[in-house]
Design a protein that fits this description.
With 203 residues, the protein is mostly beta strands. The protein has helices at residues 6-12, 154-158, 162-165, and strands at 22-26, 32-36, 45-48, 51-55, 65-69, 75-80, 88-89, 95-102, 107-114, 125-126, 136-137, 148-149. The structure holds S-adenosylmethionine and zinc ion. Zinc ion binds at residues 90-91, 138, 140, 142, 145-146.
Amino acid sequence: MTDHNLTNLVYKSRPVPLADGLRVVRSTIHGYGVVTTRAFAAGELVCVGDGVLYREDDEFDDTYALILDGPTGETVLWDLVDQTRWFNHSCAPNTEVRSRWDDAARELRAWWVALRDIAPGEEITYDYGFVAEVAEPCACGAATCRGVIVEDEPAQIARLPDQLRALLRRGASGGASVTLTSPIVAPSSTLASSSDAGGRLTT
Ligand SMILES: C[S@@+](CC[C@H](N)C(=O)[O-])C[C@H]1O[C@@H](n2cnc3c(N)ncnc32)[C@H](O)[C@@H]1O
Ligand SMILES: [Zn+2]
């Protein structure tokens, strides 16, 4: 029999676990973002993500999905379903995302690590490293903002459409400043990124 009692429904539901020390807020960068409620030290694990796995050709809204390598090197998407869904991009990020395929669990694992000390109240960011096809104007506000959310690689910057190229700022030239391998939150049409057990990233 259908249970229409809201209290019972809420009680029986399995809530998405909230990561400790993080809070979703309206962001000064874009839409919703996530700020810290405590300090994190450089190198510290900020949080482990939770996601739902999709194949590259599956139909779904992949705005919030990491694009990663699957078990046999194929591109897979991992739609974030927790606070990490709201992490914004920065050209001077304070975290990086790392990931690996867990063969035993047949599941992806992804986690965010502090690149420097992070104070309470700071917004958590990472470098999306978008390929040119999905690049967007960047509003991260960093002094070293590249003006466009795009991987800092000459090959990607060369492929930007004119209207985004016009937004590029000094420093966005494919220098070595971004060495993340990783992660990406982007449409599945991109072929970005990936991961490894050692911890490079993508998103
Ligand atoms: C995973 S969502 C992040 C959450 C987003 N703020 C929201 O409220 O939906 C990724 C999208 O947020 C926006 N975004 C994230 N970082 C940004 C930035 N630095 N500048 C401009 N837009 C950004 C872009 O539209 C991007 O495709
Ligand atoms: Zn920026």
